[in-house]
């Protein structure tokens, strides 16, 4: 009798798949053991050949390496144990340590050491020094100067103190040698300025006056007046600028006016501080 089964493909879990496969194998075994139409068809049953057992090539070497770490009959003991005789029982003081037997001393090199020198042959012992170190230390302590602490001044009731010299209570600066005198660096600076002025005067005197001309006082006052007028005009323009400057043109205008004002101030200061001015001829 032919049995046809139609199976549908469904998604099953792993456990259900294993149960189905095991039941199918049991049916096949039952078909082979019992009378069935499937047994009429001869089937080739392949025999599985067992592979040869693995034997390591380092087996003998490993055995030799483990032998030194092993001890025979360590777990259960030897098979036969020699029973001690009752005549060799434990005696008193037999386990105590004993000194070795006395032997005559012999030098290892075969000869004795030289004898100890006699008292009359010993070198003379030097006499001890009669110096009295205690007395010397006492004299040194008496003659030593005592350490004097620097005087201090107490500022507050809680005992805040500082050196008296730095407290300002003593006339420290009044007793200086340089008190009331001009400092040396100022004298050196004045001498240097005097030398420079003398050198400039001699240089101007020796220099030919062909290419230079002294500026008259009228021209000097006229130039100074014109510079001051220009400064006042620029200062008026600078005052009229807005308080809040936002645009780039306003920023550029402000920086230009500041530069012009600083240049005019320098020129005015130069003319006012130098009463004698020489100009170069064309």
TrEMBL record:
Basic and acidic residues compositional bias, start-end: 93-112
Entries under InterPro entries matching the protein: Enkurin_dom, Enkurin_domain-protein
Main location: other
Keywords: Cell projection, Coiled coil, Cytoplasm, Cytoskeleton
Subcellular location: Cell projection, Cilium; Cytoplasm, Cytoskeleton
Region annotated Disordered, chain positions: 90-127
Ranges for domain Enkurin: 188-279
Coiled-coil stretches noted in the UniProt entry, renumbered to this chain: 247-274
Segments traversing the membrane: none
GO MF annotation terms: calmodulin binding
GO cellular component: acrosomal vesicle; axonemal microtubule
PANTHER family reported in the protein's UniProt record: ENKURIN, ENKURIN-RELATED
The protein's name: Enkurin, TRPC channel interacting protein
């Amino acid at each position: 009798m032919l049995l046809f089964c139609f199976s549908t493909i469904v998604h099953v879990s792993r456990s259900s798949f294993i149960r189905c496969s095991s039941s199918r194998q049991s049916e096949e075994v039952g078909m082979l053991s019992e009378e069935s139409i499937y047994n009429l068809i001869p089937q080739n049953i392949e025999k599985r050949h067992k592979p040869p057992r693995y034997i390591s090539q380092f087996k003998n070497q490993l055995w030799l390496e483990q032998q030194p770490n092993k001890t025979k009959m360590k777990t259960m003991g030897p098979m036969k144990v020699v029973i001690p005789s009752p005549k060799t029982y434990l005696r008193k003081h037999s386990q105590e340590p004993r000194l070795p037997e006395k032997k005559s001393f012999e030098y290892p090199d075969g000869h004795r050491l030289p004898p100890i020198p006699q008292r009359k042959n010993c070198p003379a012992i030097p006499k001890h020094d009669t110096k009295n170190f205690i007395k010397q230390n006492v004299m040194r302590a008496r003659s030593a100067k005592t350490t004097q602490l620097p005087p201090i001044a107490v500022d507050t009731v809680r005992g805040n103190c500082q050196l008296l010299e730095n407290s300002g209570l003593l006339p420290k600066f009044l007793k200086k040698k340089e008190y009331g005198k001009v400092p040396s660096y100022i004298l050196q600076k004045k001498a240097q300025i005097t030398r420079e002025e003398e050198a400039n005067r001699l240089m101007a005197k020796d220099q030919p006056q062909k290419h230079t001309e002294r500026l008259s006082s009228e021209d000097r006052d006229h130039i100074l007046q014109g510079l001051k007028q220009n400064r006042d005009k620029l200062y008026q323009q600078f005052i009229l600028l807005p308080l809040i400057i936002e645009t780039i043109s306003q920023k550029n205008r402000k920086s230009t006016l500041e530069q012009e004002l600083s240049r005019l101030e320098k020129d005015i200061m130069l003319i006012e501080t130098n009463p004698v001015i020489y100009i170069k001829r064309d």
